[in-house]
Amino acid sequence: GCGGVAGPRLVIRGMVGSCAWVLLQAALLAAAERELHLRPPAEDPVRLFTEPELARYDGQKEGQPIYLAVKGVVFDVTSGKEFYGKGAPYNALVGKDSTRGVAKMSLDPADLTHDITGLTEEELKSLDDTFNNVYKAKYPIVGYTSRRILNEDGSPNLDFKPEDQPHFSIKDEF
């Protein structure tokens, strides 16, 4: 029952089919699995980042993770320190949502923003390609910008969906 939610690894013996219990178990299993693959030590699996919080991960402090947001998705780019670390060529992109800069392949401070107003079709296509084939393919997602999760008035955005990262073999929770 329960629409086959519990994957092959989840066996509940002697339980009278409580769907809620099975769903909870499946969610916990999925979360644990995700944690194993993705989680930098002592970080929560999904975090909401405000701009000042994100700014703390700008690659300036040795031993501190380096985060970069594209399209409101925060990636841990620490493994690409030679590109994103202190004094590295793309360090200007980190510690903020640099969606526009990624779309335009620009490090101009005016382009280092989430704002994509007025981008050309070609720039938007380039943004999606880079987002999917570089960032989602190479770097773990550690959270989302508050702009991506919340509405303008600060209420939760009910349309928010976490990104899937098949490369990191994350399973859908339900």
From TrEMBL:
Domain Cytochrome b5 heme-binding residue range list: 49-146
Pfam families the record matches: Cyt-b5 (PF00173)
Cell division as UniProt keyword: no
Alphabetized InterPro entries for the sequence: Cyt_B5-like_heme/steroid-bd, Cyt_B5-like_heme/steroid_sf, MAPR/NEUFC/NENF-like
Localization annotation: Endoplasmic reticulum
Classification via SUPFAM superfamilies: Cytochrome b5-like heme/steroid binding domain
SMART domains: Cyt-b5
GO cellular component: endoplasmic reticulum; membrane
Keyword match Heme: yes
Listed GO MF terms: metal ion binding
Range of residues in the leader sequence: 1-32
Any coiled-coil regions, as ranges: none
Source superkingdom: Eukaryota
Keywords: Endoplasmic reticulum, Heme, Iron, Metal-binding, Signal
Family according to the record: Belongs to the cytochrome b5 family. MAPR subfamily.
Protein name: NENF protein
GN (gene name): Nenf
